[in-house]
Specification:
heterodimer, A: alpha/beta, 4-stranded parallel beta sheet, globular, B: alpha/beta, 6-stranded parallel beta sheet, 4-stranded mixed beta sheet, 12 strands, 51% helix
């Protein structure tokens, strides 16, 4: 299958490893990955901060860039959530019903990584190997907006050598919330403190998730406190062949 | 926007008019108002407060509060999850609840008149209050007419919203809260921090101290040997309140529901203190938001299943009191309160907030509310529902920080028994906020950079200069405002040696 990669602005700017891993994983599974050069950002930050008018151009750019493709994958539940659940409404509110219709169509074929793997490509064992103690944080938009359910966990359970430990209070928000992390830094940090406590209690060496944004937040806190626990995107674990000769 | 300006003009006139007008000038004042826009709440002191981030900072630093809130919300969350999980048709009940409320809101004009007709036919008197001041004036006049100088109160959000206790006090009338938690709040000269359990921020040791210190000055004192065991505290409250019930000639209540077809009011409670108020005094005055209506008893049955499981986590609440009009020997007044509700109804993207049945399920599951408590919201409606309802009642300009008091995690929407999509509504309200100039400049610059792949690639290259800032430690741990909000508690990794785009070109060739 030919899949277009929507890298997302955050992965593009800060954590390209998640993007590289997504490409390597899909190519290893025998699929063709394209990186359409016209892409920038889905506009979620603008929409959720109250600047939907400024996001209309980004919605149009997304639609025009990815319209030609059969399927689009992004290593982010949150960005896919915005594409699928906000783009059409933003276009409608801007008085562009034609763009709204097109946005709905592109949204319907835009997938979060675990959705693409399990629902579209029909795989749960991607042949990965990752000999580490790992705990998984199901990010809010993957969980409650996309309803990915246990798809990421099914993928992780099939990874060779992994020591997967359940994260207590997993479904509780880590406190990132986009610009919430800056606008309400104290509340965000209080939520992060509880999430970190749960992560540390698992004695995992790696905390993983399907969103680089939440991982940047959790990982930023874990780094600040010198906990020695690192955050790794789900795609990187699924792409890993560590320990395989 | 024009409506809003019109209303602000109206507000100025009304305020000036009120101070100058004798009571006989009321009709003139009303006439002045009729042609101007949809009314918002005018007296908003109980619907807004300090900016949320500042109030939250103070609350978060309170370790006792954090502990009390964490324990209480975890307990009630588990109870709710258990009793909601055992109902096989919960999704259908929830959909029915949403549909009934939407139908009611779409037909509010005729259903309210039907309610008035039915209540009047059964010996009650219906009053229409446009805002808090009007409602307070109506209630104060009604109490004065009885000659009473004190009233007992059933727990009610509507009367808190309008500041009725304060208005009565100004008129020389003492209002005694009889709900146990409201009593704790009132005796503690405190404000409620939760819709259902307003003293959730207090633990039992604190409650014992309040009872010992305060009860004696307003009625029967607490026994000197009072302990902090729940039965002892409940017994002290029972004795203190019994005297109030027996003395009271007037009671004031809110309403959980009103059935239009028969003019029936309903109050749902746990303690039975509400029923004491509803039955013992000779005069009963009920203040009800106009959205509390349901068309028929069949509709009510849906909510009597949804509400207790969502709020207290009980299959059924201990006391459900219903009355239609006035019983013999009793006088009954119903005050229908707008106070901004028709303005909320006027917004297709915001009106679903009026479905709310005040169950508090959204508060109990909210990770923000759990950390900050209710006071940080500055409104008597805290938590996720408060963050969408308060700004709509007051106008977003009076409550610009509440729409941001959420990480948009979506737990509230899942828990809501009438399926109010609170996250989407928060995002909708954020569009109406008058943004700070610096933030607006940053967001516009970001949108401009992201508007073309060439500019975006250039911005990415520029950001890689950030590597120089934190080269020594391999991470960024201090950034200038507004990003200092991030680095106050979180490091930021340095942009890596090789960008994705460089890697893609190196491995796939077709340079973007």
């Amino acid at each position: 299958m030919r899949v277009a990669l929507f890298l997302t602005c955050l992965v593009d700017a800060v954590v390209p490893a998640a993007g590289k891993a997504t490409v390597e994983l899909l190519e290893r599974l025998g699929h063709e990955v394209d990186f359409p050069p016209g892409q920038t950002c889905c506009g979620q930050m603008h929409i959720n901060t109250g600047y939907a008018a400024e996001a209309v151009g980004l919605v149009r750019r997304y639609v025009e860039t990815f319209e030609p493709y059969e399927a689009v994958v992004a290593p982010s539940g949150s960005c896919v959530g915005s594409v699928r659940h906000q783009h059409a409404q933003v276009a409608r509110n801007a008085g562009d019903p034609d763009l709204a219709r097109r946005a709905e169509a592109v949204g319907a074929k835009t997938y979060e990584l675990s959705e693409l793997l399990v629902d579209v490509l029909g795989v749960t064992d991607v042949g990965a190997s990752y000999p580490h103690r790992v705990t998984y944080h199901p990010t809010c938009h993957s969980l409650r907006l996309l309803r990915v359910g246990d798809k990421p966990l099914r993928l992780l359970r099939s990874v060779r050598g992994i020591d997967l430990v359940e994260l207590p209070g997993a479904e509780e928000c880590c406190g990132f919330g986009g610009t919430f992390a800056v606008k309400n830094a104290d509340t965000s940090t209080a939520m992060l403190a509880d999430k970190m406590r749960q992560v540390l209690n698992t004695r995992a060496e790696v905390c993983t998730a399907g969103d680089s944004s939440c991982l940047l937040h959790i990982g930023g806190g874990l780094s600040r406190l010198r906990t020695g626990v690192r955050t790794v995107h789900l795609a990187e674990i699924l792409a890993s062949r560590e320990g395989v000769s | 926007m024009r409506e809003r300006e019109g209303w602000q003009r109206d507000r100025g006139e009304t305020r000036a008019g009120r101070s100058a007008l004798a009571p006989s000038g009321l009709s003139e004042e009303r006439a002045q108002r009729t042609f101007l826009g949809l009314p918002r709440a005018v007296d908003i002191q109980h619907l807004h407060g300090a900016p949320f981030p500042e109030a939250a900072r103070t609350a978060i630093a309170d370790t006792q509060l954090r502990r009390n809130m964490g324990n209480a919300t975890a307990t009630i969350r588990a109870k709710r999850a258990r009793v909601v999980g055992e109902v096989p048709d919960w999704p259908q009940l929830r959909a029915a609840g949403a549909a009934i409320k939407d139908f009611t809101l779409a037909n509010l004009d005729t259903l309210l008149v039907e309610l008035e007709t039915q209540v009047t036919a059964r010996g009650g008197t219906v009053h229409w209050a446009r805002d808090a001041a009007e409602a307070n004036r109506i209630v104060t006049d009604l109490v004065r007419a009885t000659g009473a100088d004190e009233v007992v109160k059933v727990k009610s959000m509507a009367t808190q919203e309008i500041g009725l206790n304060e208005a009565l006090e100004a008129a020389g009338i003492a209002a005694w809260e009889t709900d146990l938690a409201e009593l704790i709040v009132q005796l503690g000269h405190d404000t409620p921090s939760h819709i259902l359990v307003p003293a959730i921020h207090r633990n039992r040791a604190e409650i014992r101290e309040i009872f010992l210190r305060e009860m004696g000055s307003v009625g029967l004192p607490a026994p000197a040997d009072l302990t902090d065991s729940p039965p002892a505290l409940a017994d002290a409250a029972r004795r203190h309140l019994r005297q109030k019930f027996l003395d009271a000639r007037v009671a004031i209540s809110g309403a959980n529901f009103a059935v239009a077809s028969t003019g029936t009011l309903a109050v749902v409670e746990s303690e039975g203190n509400g029923r004491m108020c509803l039955t013992l005094p000779r005069t009963l005055i009920t203040v009800m938001g106009i959205e509390k209506l349901v068309p028929t008893w069949d509709d009510l049955s849906v909510f009597l299943q949804l509400l207790p499981r969502s709020s207290t986590g009980e299959r059924m609440n201990p006391y459900t009191s219903m009355w239609s009009g006035a019983v013999e020997g009793q006088e009954f007044h119903l005050v229908l309160l707008d106070n901004g509700r028709t303005a909320v109804l006027g917004d297709p993207s915001g009106r679903a907030a009026l479905r709310c049945i005040r169950c508090s399920a959204c508060l109990n599951v909210c990770p923000v509310y759990e950390r900050t408590g209710g006071h940080a919201y500055g409104s008597i409606y805290p938590g996720p529902i408060g963050a969408v309802l308060s700004p709509q009642l007051t106008g977003v300009s009076e409550n610009p920080t509440l729409p941001y008091a959420s990480s948009l995690c979506g737990a509230c929407y899942d828990a809501c028994p009438v399926a109010i999509d609170i996250p989407t509504m928060l995002v909708h309200l954020r569009q109406q906020v008058d943004h700070p100039a610096a933030e607006r400049a940053i967001m516009r610059a970001a949108a401009f950079a992201m508007g073309s792949p060439r500019r975006w690639a250039a911005a990415l290259r520029a950001s890689r200069a950030g590597r120089l800032l934190g080269r020594r430690r391999g991470r960024l741990s201090a950034l200038p405002p507004p990003l200092s909000g991030w680095t106050s508690s979180r490091d930021l990794p340095l942009p890596p040696d090789e960008s994705f785009r460089t890697w893609w070109t190196r491995t796939h060739g077709d340079a973007p």
